[in-house]
């Protein structure tokens, strides 16, 4: 009887292996979470040996940090571009544009963004500073948007800016659990979410 064939390692390095590793890790983290996702599973999904991961990443934590960082960046970049495109539009229109961009990026990069939401804590260790900084910078975008709305008196008086921000981000990010493209239109959802925060008629 012939000996079993040796396991052939996929030539990942020839096809952008770092991105392939992150793609597979994001998919596994989205479904299994931090503790259930192992380096062995990531390597098997990519088609390489576990030891080969260390040519690109020093640890599981470094892979997770990169996935979460990309997830935040994809959404931040989309929202920043939408706000630039909105130009001098009124605060409510800018809010709608930002919400639509957040939702589109959230669901367009589903593995990364879902992992970024679900895998914010890194086991028993502290969350890396790069991840916390990326989150703070993105949250600041929404703090400025809420401040614009308050200055224009587009929100109900007495509403806490921080409560509004947390409510809105929570509602948008929560859509990863219930959004289905055949049931909802992202543009319509953006308008409805904006109306919950700023119920008045939008100004141009």
Give structural notes.
By secondary structure, the protein is mostly helical. It has a domain at 61-197: Tetracycline Repressor, domain 2 (Orthogonal Bundle). It is built from 8 helices and no strands. It has helices at 17-36, 39-46, 60-86, 91-108, 110-118, 129-151, 161-174, 186-197. Helix 4 packs across helix 5 (110-118) and helix 4 runs antiparallel to helix 6. The termini are far apart. Mean pLDDT is 88; it is low at 1-15.
The CATH homologous superfamily of the domain at 61-197 = Tetracycline Repressor, domain 2
Overall geometry:
elongated
Kindly report the average pLDDT value: 88
Number-wise, the strands total 0
Largest sheet, in brief, is: none
What is the CATH C-level name of the domain at 61-197?
Mainly Alpha
Structural class: mainly alpha
> How many helices?
8
Rounded to the nearest angstrom, the radius of gyration is 20 Å
Distance between the termini: 78 Å
Level of helix content?
55-70%
Identify the CATH architecture of the domain at 61-197: Orthogonal Bundle
Proportion of strand residues: under 5%
User: Stretches where pLDDT falls below 50 for ≥5 residues?
Assistant: 1-15
| CATH topology heading of the domain at 61-197 | Tetracycline Repressor, domain 2
* Pattern of helices and strands: HHHHHHHH
Key features?
single chain, about 200 residues, mainly alpha, Tetracycline Repressor, domain 2
């Amino acid at each position: 009887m012939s000996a079993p064939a040796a396991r052939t390692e996929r030539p990942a390095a020839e096809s952008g292996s770092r991105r392939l590793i992150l793609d597979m890790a994001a998919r596994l983290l989205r479904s299994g979470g931090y503790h259930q996702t192992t380096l062995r599973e990531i390597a098997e999904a990519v088609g390489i040996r576990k030891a080969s991961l260390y040519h690109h990443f020093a640890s599981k934590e470094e892979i997770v940090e990169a996935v979460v960082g990309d997830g935040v960046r994809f959404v931040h970049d989309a929202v920043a571009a939408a706000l630039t495109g909105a130009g001098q539009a009124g605060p409510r229109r800018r809010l709608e544009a930002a919400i639509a961009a957040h939702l589109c990026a959230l669901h367009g990069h589903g593995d990364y963004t879902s992992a970024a939401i679900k895998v914010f804590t890194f086991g028993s260790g502290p969350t890396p500073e790069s991840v916390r900084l990326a989150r703070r910078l993105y949250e600041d975008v929404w703090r400025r948007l809420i401040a614009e709305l308050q200055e224009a008196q587009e929100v109900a008086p007495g509403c806490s800016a921080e409560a509004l921000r947390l409510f809105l981000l929570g509602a948008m990010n929560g859509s990863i659990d219930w959004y289905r493209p055949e049931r909802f239109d992202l543009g319509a959802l953006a308008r409805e979410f904006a109306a919950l925060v700023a119920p008045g008629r939008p100004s141009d």
